[in-house]
Amino acid sequence: MSKEQILQRIRAGKHSMQMIDEVPTADPVKYIKEDPSHDLYKEFTTRIVENRSILVESSEDKLVDDINAILAKEGAKHLIYSNEQLPFDASALNIEKKFKFDKPIEEFKKDIFTFDVSIVQTKYAVASHGTCCVASSPDQPRLMSLSPKICIMLVKKENIVNSLSEALHNLKAQNGGRLPTNTIFITGPSRTADIELQTIIGVHGSQIAYCVTY
Asked: Using CA atoms, how far apart are residues 89 and 109, in angstroms rounded to an integer?
C-alpha cells in the first residue's frame, strides 16, 4: 500500500491528523522563553548530573589544571583529542601519551581501542534535557565519544540553549540549512537495561562521562 493510499484512508475516516508538511517550527519549550529570569546554566548542570555525568565547573584560564586533575584522578594514560580548535594548549596536559586526531582513521584504526580517554568539544548544551550536542566531522568523528572508557566533554557556557529544537535549528543555520551527517547527544555514560531491568553501564560507549563547563 502506497503512502498516498494510507493518507486517503485516514482522511476518509473520522480521525484528525496533522500533515507532515505542517510540522510547527516554533520551539516547543515555551515556558523557558517566557521566563526571563530562568537560569539555563543551573538547569543544565542540575540535569546533566542527574543523568550521571560528572560535572566540573571551570573557566577558560583553569581548564588545563581541571582537566589534568581529571586525568590524574582516573589514572588515564592514553589521550585522544579532536582536531577542532580547543580552548587550551593540549601540550600542557599531563598524560603519558596524547594523540591528536589529525589523520585518516585508516592510519591508526588498529590502535583506536588503546585510548582510554578522549576530549571532545560540544557545539551546544541543552538545558531542558541536560545533554550535550556533539556534531561529528572529519576533525571530530563520532568514535571520539564512543571508543574510550572516559569521555571529557567541553561546554562553553554561552552555548547552553533552551531545548533540543533550538540546538538543532542552530546547527542547521551553521551548516548551510542542513544538519551535520551525524549529530550525537550525550547525557552521561553509555547505558542499557536488559529484560530484568538491570542497568548496565558502558555497553556501547564511554563508561565515565565528564562535563567541563567554562
From this structure: 25
Q: For residue 120, give every residue at least 6 positions away whose Cβ sits within 8 Å of its Cβ, in sequence order, or none.
A: 81, 82, 134, 140, 144, 145, 151, 152, 153, 154
Instruction: Please give the biggest Cα pair distance in the chain.
Output: 68
The CA distance from 71 to 164, in Å, is 30
580552548: which residue's cell?
A: 87
Cβ pair 144, 80 in contact under 8 A: yes
State how far the Cα of 14 lies from the Cα of 131, in Å rounded to an integer.
Answer: 40
Cβ atoms of 170 and 135 closer than 8 Å:
no
Q: Which domains does the chain have, with CATH numbers?
A: 29-213 (3.40.50.10420)
If you search the block for the grid coordinates 576533525, which residue do you land on? 139
For the segment 131-180, what is each residue's pLDDT rounded down to a tens digit? Answer: 999 988 877 877 788 889 999 999 999 999 999 999 999 999 988 888 88
Q: How far apart are CA 101 and CA 111, in angstroms?
A: 12
174-206 pLDDT, tens digit per residue, is 888 888 888 889 998 887 766 666 666 666 678
